[in-house]
Amino acid sequence: MLPTKDRSTLFWAAAAAALALIGPALLRGEGLLATAALWRVPPWNAILPPRPGAGLLADQLLYLAPWRQFMREEFLAGHFPLWNPYILAGVPFAACIQAAPFYPLNAGLLWLPAVPFTLVAAFLKIFCAGVFTGLHLRRLGASERGAVLSGVVFSLGGFMVAWLGHPQTNTACLLPALFWALGRLSDRGSFRNASLLGLFAGLALLGGHPPTMLQVLGAAAAYAVFLAARAPRADRTRFIGLALLAVPLGACLAAPALLPYLEYHGLSSTAAASSGLARWGTRLSPWLLLHLLMPLASGSPARGAEILAGVFGLGPESNFIERAAWTGLIPLGFAALAVVRRRRHGEVLFHAGLALFGLLAALGAPPLPRLWSVLPGYSSVNPTRLLLLWSFGVAVLAGLGADLDPADFPAGDRRLLRWILWPPAVLAASAYWVMVWRSLAELRLGEVLFVGAAMSLFLAECFATQRLFDPRRRAWAPWLAGLFCLLPALDVNPSAPASTFYPETPALAAMKDAVGEGRVFALGRALEPNLGMPGRLRDARGRDFTAPRRYERLVTGRTGDFDFYSGAPEMPLNAALLAVGVVGATEKTVSAAPQGWKKIHEGDLFVFRSPAAARRALFVPAARAGGTEEVLAAVRAPGFDPARLAWFDDGDVSAHPPGVKGTARIVEDGADSVIVEAECDGPGWLVLLDNWFPGWEATVNGERARVRRADYAFRAVAVPGGRSVVRFDYRPSSVGLGLILALFSALALAAAWIIPG
Asked: Which of 155, 264, 284, 631 is the 20 to 30 Å CA partner of 444?
């Protein structure tokens, strides 16, 4: 265990790094909100001023933040939601892995509004990454200065900062914690150390991004093999046994998220969509090597994202954060010291190999792409994000190298270091100027000034790196390294005031007034699919990264489209079947609006209302049974009326007397429960045009009833003649079993913590 003074220093350094990053936004009273995405999206483009920001940063506002907003609103109403009724005709929210509803940082901060949440979440992730990287270094024998240097470099490095608002960093910040816990378990195979490993493994699995989970746990597994190979035979068996016990307990701790996700994945089109993308072949441009040395070479998301992307042939849709993995020249210099001087040290070799592997994977060096294509799980993972391993490996090596004194090196080693550091720096500067010079006439004054600032920062860092080899200046290493990581980091995550976070617009108000119990729909890129969620608008579209297979096939006739309903060029085949009653359109797409619908608003968006009110709850007097394909063809046929006939593909249906009439209306419409009143003069079917999914239960007048799958994707129950009250409740067994496993795991890990030895 570290002395209290050492732990305190690491904590204060990590806290200082986190505060330095969020400080400017905090002082302005703003949050790390990428609301630049909204001013490009109708109807907000009519009321919000232009702001910089593009690429994958837009995912935060278009897809991720609406989930958190929905969860928070439900929580403040006294309810933790398991089902999300606002997108794709309803999806299991407990299984929405990227929303990470069970991750402690998300679940524990639900009471915070969006602006303070982004700041607190950013602080905690940066702090966690810095502290555990420092603890890992101290375990490796690094000095306090080396540990602080590594912690600051990894926590303010490109990967952590660029992905800060995404679920990737929920897991990435725990990579050093897993390494530290594995090292402690290897040093002393105690139950307490095993419980630490299980805890961090469980938290990593709750993080919310399956590809990052696979990559982080894969790196941890490689480190475990390395440690086991080095351990004495007497200790090796105990280390392996305790690790194999701890990791499954960690998986059980994450079971409330994992089990629903696996259930949802099996009923989704995710596998087909991922296969079609061939993510295993994704690679970054060789210009990545320049970005590792000059982070802002191609622009800044916070000051005009990708303003220079064209200079490097990266294309207008390139994403800054995909290639953000800088660690700074000073850490690279110290990492080179560690490799040159301690190249026979096992930990140095492992972390150097880890860093190199991450870099080669991002560049798509053969035969790695072919390997990814055949590895289960990894075949659908983007390997460029293994840059995380580069960032972490270099940070660890930098801390180990910072403890070495070049004055003690043989002359040959000092010459080698100069040749390692200076040629890449000169080559990077030369390549940058050549590329910029070729396009200088096309650049605006602001872009030219930006180029000058980027080059000045790079030259200052080059000078500082060489001066730090002077023993008299080595004490400044952590602070200068942190400074040169922080300066580009401040240009990555834009900040914005709360007033720009999904503000109300006249079009949205008109939609709310007109939609009733039905759903909205928007054409093209108007009101992106998840953006109705903060305003409690049910949308027939949606982006869940895991789409219900039957719903996708019902709408499009096929499955496997990763961008399913990210944007709709035309109306769906049957608006009544999807309970669509309100449609939004822009000037470009207004011609595709449905004929005969009444225009109720014009301005920030064209809004149309259907002639008859859209209904999700229907009394249907007749039903037929058929095979899956027959039912799909029948409900997709032109003119199919879901209020006249219900189709079932999950078994036979009983015949009812002809001519039965009835009505149905929703009287209570919650996230996990829906209550419907039906009145009819004979038996029939109550069809609810919300997605059928395992876990939905129903009662009719207080008696349990079977929830049938109607019209290929929706729910139905049989109702008798007269007045009936039908209640649908979502009680998924996957969540219940997951909570039981999590409780068992928590008790087991707590017991392991207090067991001596």
From this structure: 284
